[in-house]
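User: quick one, sequence for these C-alpha cells?
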C-alpha cells in the first residue's frame, strides 16, 4: 500500500482545470472504494470584508481548512486532495501547517487560449470585473508558478479531459 500521509495539491492558475480534476479524482477514489476528502481552497476564503490584519483572507482560509480537515479525520484516515494556488514556498508552508501534513503539488497548466475560453464560459455578463481580474491574475500566476519550481509534476490540460488529468495525477502518486 502506498504512503498517503501527504496532501495531493492540484496547483495552477485560473481556468486550468483544478476543480474539474478534483471532482474526477473524487469519482475515481469512490469507484475504487478508497477513503478520501476533497477541498477546493476557493471556498475557504470567500468572505468580505477581510480583517485589516488579513487583507487576502489567507489566515482565515488556513484556519477554515484546518478545522474542516480535522472534521474529516474524525471519520477515519483518508487521502486529502486539495485544489488551489501555491505561488511561493510561503503558500506551501501555510497549507502544510494547516493540514499538519507535507504538501506534494502537481501544477496544471493550459494554453492561454484554453484558459481564456474556460474563464469566459465561467462568468456571466454581470461578472465582467471578476472575469477581467481572473484573466489578468492568470497571466501573472502562470509566470510566477513557472519560475517557482514548486511542483513535482506539471500536466498540460489543454487537450486532456478532466478524467485523464485525474488519472495522471493519481498514477504519479501511485494512488490508483
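Assistant:
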Amino acid at each position: 500500500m502506498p504512503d498517503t500521509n501527504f496532501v495531493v495539491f492540484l496547483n495552477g492558475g485560473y481556468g486550468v482545470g483544478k476543480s474539474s480534476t478534483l471532482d474526477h479524482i473524487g469519482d475515481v477514489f469512490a469507484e475504487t472504494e478508497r477513503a478520501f476528502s476533497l477541498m477546493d481552497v476557493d471556498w475557504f476564503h470567500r468572505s468580505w470584508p477581510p480583517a485589516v490584519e488579513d487583507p487576502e483572507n489567507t489566515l482565515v482560509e488556513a484556519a477554515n481548512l484546518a478545522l474542516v480537515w480535522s472534521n474529516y479525520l474524525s471519520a477515519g484516515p483518508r487521502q486529502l486532495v486539495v485544489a488551489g494556488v501555491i505561488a511561493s514556498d510561503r503558500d506551501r508552508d501555510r497549507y502544510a501547517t494547516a493540514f499538519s501534513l507535507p504538501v506534494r503539488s502537481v501544477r496544471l497548466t493550459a494554453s492561454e487560449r484554453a484558459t481564456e475560453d474556460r474563464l469566459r464560459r465561467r462568468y456571466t455578463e454581470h461578472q465582467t470585473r471578476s472575469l477581467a481580474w481572473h484573466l489578468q491574475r492568470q497571466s501573472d500566476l502562470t509566470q510566477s508558478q513557472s519560475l517557482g519550481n514548486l511542483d513535482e509534476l506539471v500536466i498540460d490540460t489543454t487537450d486532456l479531459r478532466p478524467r485523464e488529468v485525474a488519472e495522471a495525477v493519481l498514477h504519479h502518486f501511485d494512488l490508483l
